[in-house]
Design a protein that fits this description.
- The protein is of the alpha/beta class and 274 residues long.
- The protein folds into two domains: 129 residues, Rossmann fold (3-Layer(aba) Sandwich), CATH 3.40.50.10860; 135 residues, 3-Layer(aba) Sandwich (Rossmann fold).
- Helix content is 37%, strand content 20%.
- It is built from ten helices and twelve strands.
- A six-stranded mixed β-sheet has the order 2-1-3-5-6-4, with helices on both faces. It has a six-stranded parallel β-sheet with strand order 9-8-7-10-11-12, with helices on both faces.
- The radius of gyration is 19 Å and the shape is globular.
- Bound molecules: 2'-monophosphoadenosine-5'-diphosphate (ATR).
């Protein structure tokens, strides 16, 4: 019997850490599986997915720029994938239907609450950005019952659209970067500004000595956003490597029914310089 096949699909894909993370999970939990990276042509994501499953593949992770297409493609979506508008985990059910889930939000929440002991319940949370990445995490974040979530974005209408989509339950509002003021318990950067080494124009009053900053990005060096927060006196700054590992662990659990010990994998990655 050959190993069960899994892969991550994206374009480009060579930078992906998912094959390394999943092979560490597989070794740790003694799962007989192989996990590779597939670069799908920009115009043939659907063909790449159907080809993979018809070769006997068991599950796929989906990354940029195909998460929204994956959402369109599936026959069944989980409750967390539905409002996220994006799917990052694919598998087939017993009848062969293509099923889609989104593990990004739960990855963020588990990293914050379990790995870093950051409470979310009754906290005031500021989320920066209103693109796909933020839409993907809002459902699981709101489910933790923070006191309030403010979404601040360069384009206010996009933040307002997310407020309308996720309204109900937790107090939720939209702001521009120039209008949001006063300290928050937690500020999550979900903009892609750090990719260009940019920082949204944030007011220093957002941070006090009990503010925690979380950048969904990570890199060899502290991100521009986390550097800014530290400079304003934030008590802790956290990068998104743990979120990456936790979203992978949730996909692994969906596929294999086994939860890997993520703390071991995270420290292995940190030791390797990530
Ligand atoms: P992603 O999938 O990474 O979320 P996206 O959907 O293109 O990508 O969204 C990018 C987010 O980063 C948006 O909130 C964008 O702001 P706009 O909605 O106003 O475009 C934000 N963003 C990107 N570059 C930025 C910058 N230099 N300063 C501030 N916000 C930025």
């Amino acid at each position: 019997m050959s190993s069960d096949l899994y892969a991550v699909v994206g374009n480009p894909i060579s930078h992906s850490k998912s094959p390394l993370i999943h092979s560490l999970f597989a070794a740790q939990t003694h799962q007989d599986m192989e996990y590779t990276a597939i670069q799908a042509p920009l115009d043939d994501f659907a063909g790449t997915v159907s080809g993979f499953f018809s070769r006997g593949g068991k599950g796929l992770n989906v990354t940029v720029p195909f998460k929204e297409q994956a959402w369109e493609l599936v026959t069944w979506r989980s409750d967390r994938a539905g409002p996220a508008g994006a799917v990052n985990t694919l598998y087939r059910d017993a009848e062969g239907h293509l099923c889609g889930d989104n593990t990004d939000g739960v990855g963020l929440v588990r990293d914050l609450t379990l790995n870093h002991g950051v409470p979310l319940r009754n906290q005031r949370v500021l989320v920066l950005g209103a693109g796909g990445a933020v839409r993907g995490i809002l459902g699981p974040l709101l489910a933790e019952q923070p006191a309030e979530v403010v979404i601040a974005n360069r384009t206010l209408t996009k933040a307002q659209a997310l407020v309308d989509l996720f309204a109900g339950g937790v107090r939720l509002s939209a702001e521009g970067f120039d209008s949001v003021r006063e300290p928050f318990d937690l500020i999550i950067n979900g903009t892609s500004a750090s990719l260009q080494g940019d920082l949204p124009p944030l007011d220093p009053s957002l941070v006090d000595e009990s503010t925690i900053s979380y950048d969904m990005m990570y890199g060899f060096e502290t991100t521009v956003f986390n550097r800014w927060a530290e400079h304003q006196g934030a008590c802790r700054s956290i990068d998104g490597l743990g979120m990456l590992v936790e979203q992978a662990a949730e996909a692994f659990w969906l596929w294999r029914g086994v939860r890997p010990d993520t703390s071991k994998v995270l420290s292995q990655l940190r030791q390797e310089g990530f």
